[in-house]
Amino acid sequence: PPLPARLPVEGERNVLITSALPYVNNVPHLGNIIGCVLSADTFARYCRLRNWNTLFVCGTDEYGTATETRALEEGLSPQELCDRYHAVHADVYAWFRISFDHFGRTTTPQQTRIAQDIFQRLLARGFLLQDTLEQLRCESCGRYLADRFVEGTCPFCGYAEARGDQCDKCGKLINAVELKNPQCKLCRGTPVVTPTQHLFLDLPKLEGRLEAWLERTWAAGDWTANARHITR
């Protein structure tokens, strides 16, 4: 359904509430409810009781390697997987009576227009740069391997089933090219290190303006100490 036509009203208390978007590649469990949407739902209900102009939105996060991995495991296309699990998520939250004003999806034409507009404006203003990184490529599959598609021996503790982003045994973060004896999780072939071109947000170019904006916002807004610390 389209977003409700609820816009900020001048002179009123306007509140926008969003929950972290749940990945669509699993069935929500009680921890997801408690850790993600329940506190936001409680606050949304409070705001409505105060007669504040409130909009509570959420939706399934349907992009990323986790979705692709799960689709391969279940023998589905990513689109089929997303369609199945979006319906499951929506049903679970409805059963718990989570009072979203809108529960949507990241795979909508509206979302695509917004994301591409942000990218194009950054590109036009010179805030994107191109650089070369080394990445593992599986020649058998004919694809560069995202972190979740690689496993091997941890270079720190020697655990034989470390992922391309983190070792589950010692907990250390790993760059996939650092793995010993890397294997492609799709075909069990041996990937090779290959240079690849990537686009990056040029943060040093934005740093001065961002710091000035943060100082003004911290002075005028009601930021928690934790939010300030993480942002710094």
Overall description:
The protein has 232 residues and is an alpha/beta fold. The protein folds into two domains: 11-110, HUPs (Rossmann fold, 3-Layer(aba) Sandwich); 128-200, Methionyl-trna Synthetase, domain 2, CATH 2.170.220. 38% of the residues lie in helices and 22% in strands. It has helices at residues 30-49, 65-74, 78-95, 109-124, 203-220, 225-231; strands at residues 14-18, 53-60, 102-105, 128-138, 143-144, 150-153, 162-163, 180-184, 192-201. The model has no long low-confidence stretch (mean pLDDT 91).
Q: What is this entry, summarized?
A:
With 232 residues, the protein is of the alpha/beta class. The protein has six helices and nine strands; from the N terminus they run βαβααβαββββββαα.
- How far the N terminus sits from the C terminus, by CA atoms, comes to 38 Å
The secondary-structure element order is EHEHHEHEEEEEEHH
Q: Average the pLDDT over all residues and give the rounded result.
A: 91
Could you state the CATH homologous superfamily of the largest domain?
Answer: HUPs
User: How many β-strands, per DSSP?
Assistant: 9
Count of distinct structural domains: 2
* Shape annotation: globular
Low-confidence stretches: none
By CATH, the architecture of the largest domain is named 3-Layer(aba) Sandwich
Task: State the CATH class of the largest domain.
Answer: Alpha Beta
Q: How many alpha or pi helices?
A: 6
Specify the helix fraction band: 25-40%
Main beta sheet: strand number and arrangement? 3 strands, parallel
CATH topology of the largest domain: Rossmann fold
Strand order, biggest sheet?
Answer: 1-2-3
Structural class: alpha/beta
Measured by DSSP, the beta-strand proportion falls in 15-25%
* Rg measurement, Å: 22 Å
GO cellular component, one term: cytosol
Domain Methionyl/Leucyl tRNA synthetase: 15-231
Main location: cytoplasm
Protein name: Methionine--tRNA ligase, cytoplasmic
